Amino acid sequence: MGRWPNLDAIEKIDGPIDKKAYEKELEDLQHRLLDLQIHHLRTGGRVLIGIDGWDAAGKGGMIERLVEGLEPKSTHVWRIGAPTPEEQGRHWLWRFWNRLPAPGSWAIFDRTWYGRVLVERVEGFCDEAAWQRAYNEINEFERQLADDGVRIVKLLVHVSAEEQKKRMIDRLESPHKHYKIGLEDFRNIARRDDYIEAYGDMLERTDTKHAPWHVVATDSKPHARLAGLRIVADQVGRGIDAEPPPLDPRIVEAARKLWGWRPGDGAKKRGDRK
Known about the structure:
Number of domains: 2
Number of helices: 11
CATH class of the largest domain: Alpha Beta
CATH topology of the largest domain: Rossmann fold
Order of helices and strands: HEHEHEHHEHHHEHHH
Radius of gyration: 22 Å
Mean pLDDT: 93
Strand content: 5-15%
Structural class: alpha/beta
Number of strands: 5
Low-confidence stretches: none
Shape: globular
Largest sheet: 5 strands, parallel
CATH superfamily of the largest domain: P-loop containing nucleotide triphosphate hydrolases
CATH architecture of the largest domain: 3-Layer(aba) Sandwich
Helix content: 40-55%
């Protein structure tokens, strides 16, 4: 293969991580992401984040940390499953076009349009001609979005077979996690080699300059979450000065007239309490 090795050969992110250091970096990353989101709220920018990967690889936990500090009204998380009756019979990308971010918004996909060349390919839900054609359709779909100013971030979360087994057994043994597991999960796990091949083809054929892939090893959830948020922040923040603008002088004057407030008054009061 080209620049992408077999997924199971990707180096794992592991080793101990200090809890306080983890929480501090997580908080810093979440603040940085919020600054970037506020920039897009002001400028009308659009961000599309697609997260794909194995069952029990940690997609949900990564998304939870990603959105935790964001402005909720401008953040949309789409959990993609099988097409609905309304979506069937239309072009397979139609349901993704309908979920694209509006100006000033971020759209986060928990599973993506890559299902066409992954589960639909492996499980035979479409014929070979359809999934082979989909690589070009996907690249064109993403190119159009990038040309229109959408910032695209694609994450593939990878978990080893051993760690996946541990997490799936934990779901079996934890009643509050039973909702996370279904018969289809076991069918997918049993075809791991087929999925490894499909993931490899996907990476080789859809890793483009305008929409590159980023693979995150997730055997260690804390390391993976930080790595995922770093990638999102770096990709979304490329070329952006996310420093908040100064207050509008008219707003400063309105606050002065109404409350007698002047810039710096809050800091002075906090200093008095120390």
